[in-house]
Design goal:
By secondary structure, the protein is mainly α. Helices cover 33% and strands 0% of the residues.
């Protein structure tokens, strides 16, 4: 039996991940202490569109500015 073809994703590589290799999440906080992304943003970064990544980076800046 043949599988149906997977829907291809257009992976955007134009925006680098803000990861600084310091992945630390406290149990009471859902934001990485290294890059200020939440768990969903970290997990989904590679499959996010350019627009989603730009939005996430804006949220990262807000989190940095308002600890």
């Amino acid at each position: 039996m043949r599988r149906r073809p997977r829907q291809s994703r257009n992976i955007d590589l134009s925006i680098a991940s803000p990861c600084i290799k310091v992945c630390q999440f406290k149990s009471d906080e859902l934001v990485c202490k290294g890059c200020y992304r939440n768990q969903d943003e970290v997990r989904n970064w590679m499959i996010m569109s350019k627009e989603e990544k730009l939005h996430a980076l804006a949220q990262v800046q807000l989190r940095k500015d308002n600890p």
